[in-house]
Amino acid sequence: MLRYDDFDDRAETRYMPYLMYFHRAGYRSTTVNTDRLGFRLSNGTAEQASVENPPKGPVRLLAGSSTPFGIGATSDAATMASRLWSRYAPSVPWLNFAGRSHNSMQELLLFLMHRHLLPEVDEIVVFSGLNDLALSRLPDAQRGTHGAFFNCGEYFEQMEDLRARHRKQKRGFGRRPGGAQGDPHVVPSLADRIAYAVDLTAQHLASLRLLAAPTGARVTYVLQPLATWVREAAAAEEKAIFGELDEISNFWDLYGDIATMDAGRRYAAALEEACKAQDVRFLDLSPVLAESVTESDWLYVDRAHFTDHGTEIVCGLLAESLGLS
């Protein structure tokens, strides 16, 4: 995890046009490695590939945010894309097409910007959902039309400073510096947050389907399993880790309302309806995972990201649930 902290060093953030940010390119360590575009490498039984250097013939894409990217995996070979390719669904190579801290709009843009580099695409599995729901708590001014993104508050602050540098002092009528101050932001209700996140996701999935249609790829949406959506009682190792993380973070203040089992089920039901309306396969992995593990299974390194053991179980369940060989 210290290597992932170095990988995510904010002082080294790679800002990009349109996408806002993406992974450090050409990063090398014993744990995580990226190609010159910033995509993480994935491993088959005897082959390594990435978006920069894809294998010949059809491929499958594992898209989404930090969980399919593999935060918590001890090596590139231990990520979901690699385990699917090397063991659980090896008939077609899998590429790691995930973006750390991305929302559904950024997932769509990532595909739009790099589609021309890909060979024939057989399958696109979007393993996502948590970030859009988490970001739904932000003010309307930050969410805008297409949804908020992580650290967008810093972006808007910098843009306001830029506007101020270009603004000319106007005479007459005495302008008040600073402008009017609005009411403090009130976090929307859980129902409103779910509806907002689902609506955005549906819009972006519709666009992804249009972009993917010429490739013949099937699009599947998998709602990622937050630890608290899977089971009430965590493994002993998870309890210890979660307790330490809670002492240095504000997880429950920011995400307590969406972290409940009930919130996860309500969100999944709404996403399932949205996917059904677009003929997109949908899988809520939380109850599937819950039925396949015990309290002794150490699945998570934090409430969103898997251990290697967790990844193994999840990949087996994905292959079985989605009929992937």
From TrEMBL:
- Enumerate the InterPro entries for this protein: SGNH_hydro_sf (IPR036514)
Which superkingdom heads the taxonomic lineage of this protein's source? Answer: Bacteria
- Protein name as catalogued: Inducer of phenazine A
Organism this protein belongs to: Streptomyces actuosus
The record lists the lineage as: Bacteria, Bacillati, Actinomycetota, Actinomycetes, Kitasatosporales
